[in-house]
Amino acid sequence: MTRVFLAALVGLAIGPFLPGLPEARAVDHGQMGESWAVIEPDLMEVIKAKLEEARRTGRLDQMNQQFANRVKERVMRPVPVGGIRPAQEDRVWEFDPAVTIERDIHDHKGNLIAMAGQRVNPLDTVALTQRLVFVNGDSDAELSWAMAQGDDQQAKIIFVNGSPFEQMKVHQRRFYFDQSGTLSEHFGIEHTPALVEQDGKILVIREKAISRRAS
Predict the structure, then answer these.
(1) In angstroms, how far is the first alpha carbon of the chain from the final one?
(2) What is the CATH number of domain 85-207?
(3) Hey, which residues does 207 pair with through a beta bridge?
(4) Which pLDDT score, from 0 to 100, does residue 63 have?
(5) Counting runs of H as helices and runs of E as strands, what totals does the chain give?
(6) What is the Cα 155 distance to its own chain's centre?
(7) Residue 145: pLDDT above 90?
(8) Where are the domains of the chain?
(9) Distance of alpha carbon 75 from its chain centroid, rounded?
(10) Strand partners of residue 157
């Protein structure tokens, strides 16, 4: 009935402006079938009820513990970097870390530090004092090769797979992890072990094929 009434109102409103449009009249066609009120439960109340039930039955504590365990597992053993395989042959290339400034950069006093279009090489001001060594931490052969590249002051060992924390306990030295493969992708590393080191104003990257008998 509501739609018919609205149609009648629309017809009365626009009828004078549309010649030939028949006069609209409201007609009561009666009730079509049975109708019910719309009942929509409050979402927060539903959630609260489910949480209360989980607390009452002890499932909430169990869920919290499971969540904590999953978080701990991800911290102890991060998701492996995808697409990286053991090196089957040596590969060497150069990497220019210089970037082109997109807009003027000023310090907090307004002094110009770098102009738009200027190329800036971070190696002009900061040296890469440590080699960056990328390895599969689950490979004993790669890990041995990596540690032979120097101590903590000379080489920073970065895992693309495995658990840095477990290996720290074994070897009593610091290890890192390439979260989400950010560094591997930046340098174009596709195989391990790989080594990144400075040579003048550029970086030299080497993927090294090694014997894997110790894996």
Answers:
(1) 80
(2) 3.40.30
(3) 91, 194
(4) 74
(5) 6, 12
(6) 26
(7) yes
(8) 1-31, 85-207
(9) 15
(10) 133
Cα gap 192→209, rounded to integer Å? 8
- pLDDT score for 144: 94
**What distance in Å separates the CA atoms of residue 2 and residue 67, rounded to the nearest whole number?**
52
Contact between 122 and 134 (Cβ < 8 Å): no
Could you count the other beta carbons within 10 Å of the beta carbon of residue 206? 16
Single pTM value for the model = 0.65
66 three-state secondary structure: helix
What are the tokens at 60? Answer: 């909430």
Report which of 95, 96, 101, 94 is spatially closest to residue 120, judged by C-alpha positions. 101
Distances (CA, A) of 11 to 1, 3, 76: 15, 12, 71
* Each residue's pLDDT tens digit, 82-134: 999 999 999 999 999 998 988 988 888 889 888 888 898 889 889 999 999 99
Residues in the chain: 215
For 101-110, b where at least 16 C-beta lie within 10 A, e where not — what string?
eeeeeeeeee
